[in-house]
Design brief:
This protein is α/β, with parallel strands linked by helices and 334 residues long. The chain has helices at 2-14, 18-21, 38-49, 64-72, 92-106, 117-130, 236-245, 253-257, 288-291, 311-314, 323-333; strands at 24-28, 53-60, 78-83, 110-114, 134-143, 146-151, 156-161, 167-171, 187-190, 221-225, 248-251, 278-282, 299-304, 317-320. α5 (92-106) crosses α6 and α7 (236-245) runs parallel beside α11. It binds flavin-adenine dinucleotide and 2-acetamido-2-deoxy-beta-D-glucopyranose (NAG).
Amino acid sequence: MFSTSARACQNLLSGIKVSQRFQSTLVIAEHNNENLLPITRHAITAANKLGGEVSVLVAGTKCGTVAEQAAQVQGASRVLVAEGDAFKGLLPESVTPLVLATQQQFKFTHIVAGASAFGKSLLPRVAAKLDVSPISDVVDIKDKDTFVRTIYAGNAILTLKAKDAVKVLSVRGTSFEPAADGGSGGKSEPAPSGDYASKVSEFVSQELSKSDRPELTSAKVVISGGRGMKSGDNFSLLYKLADKMNAAVGASRAAVDAGFVPNDLQIGQTGKIVAPELYIAVGISGAIQHLAGMKDSKTIVAINKDPEAPIFQVADYGLVADLFKAVPELTEKL
Ligand SMILES: Cc1cc2nc3c(=O)[nH]c(=O)nc-3n(C[C@H](O)[C@H](O)[C@H](O)COP(=O)(O)OP(=O)(O)OC[C@H]3O[C@@H](n4cnc5c(N)ncnc54)[C@H](O)[C@@H]3O)c2cc1C
Ligand SMILES: *[C@@H]1O[C@H](CO)[C@@H](O)[C@H](O)[C@H]1NC(C)=O
């Protein structure tokens, strides 16, 4: 009796690949102690594409509500919570040792975060400490160790197979749908405790720009201005149009470098990556470094007085016109 069932059991187990059995992913949540930020939902979708269980790590000062939100997200089966002053401002210097301690305990096969400023400063530290290669800006997941990412400012797409024991990935938000609520309610438990306070840096304060407009990386419509705007004051033309369209306002690097607008508006290779339903480029030439941040937009409209401007090569609709005439006209008509 016993030997038969033991053999049956053995037969069953031999059919299961060990690597799959232990497949598990840790997603590092990004939040403001009140709300889980959308990028985390995109990262959870990516994590679910890897297969296996998904745990979400929520570190913060008073992040109980965020942990509750994370537990409701589809595909999050466990939430690990770390609360303490050490996590004020979510400095990468204090989150890194927490991630390492969590990894030490749970032995995840994958560690995932969004390719935001937060993820970009955290994951290379984690990967270095684990002595593995970070895989950044992933746009697609083929299987548990095969990933697609863009290189040369988005001009080439690379598929790579990672051989590291632990894969540390940052994923591009615009490439994965946000995971919705309606999960079965992941179980919540404390993350490993420890002294995570950073000895090298301290969070002092932050000033958040207040805006009634939608957030740039999640807006359905984005209107961006370039050097052609000529001054910061002239951006008011774009803000007027944006208000009519419930749009966010962005900018090229030239506009930021010239001091027209603050640099959190910059779109492109060294700025934000956006993929709205509608992107309107105003007085922007269309340099590859700018295209790297917006060419996945569903519909692209360009307004430029130079018919040879490269932006027209990616635009679905192009208007060769003086922006100082065209933009007020458009605003008027809406
Ligand atoms: C490593 C590196 C990283 C970079 N990262 C980024 C990045 O993240 N984002 C980014 O944007 N750039 C980036 N750049 C810079 C990029 O190469 C370009 O210099 C920049 O995008 C140009 O900005 P622009 O199109 O606003 O300016 P310009 O190239 O000067 O174009 C201005 C356009 O406005 C048009 N124009 C002028 N007046 C009018 C008018 N009255 N009406 C209509 N049209 C008008 C002109 O015809 C012109 O096409 C990077 C560069 C490097 C080297
Ligand atoms: C745009 O800005 C320039 C420089 O500040 C200014 O001279 C010009 O009048 C402005 N144009 C418009 C239409 O507001």
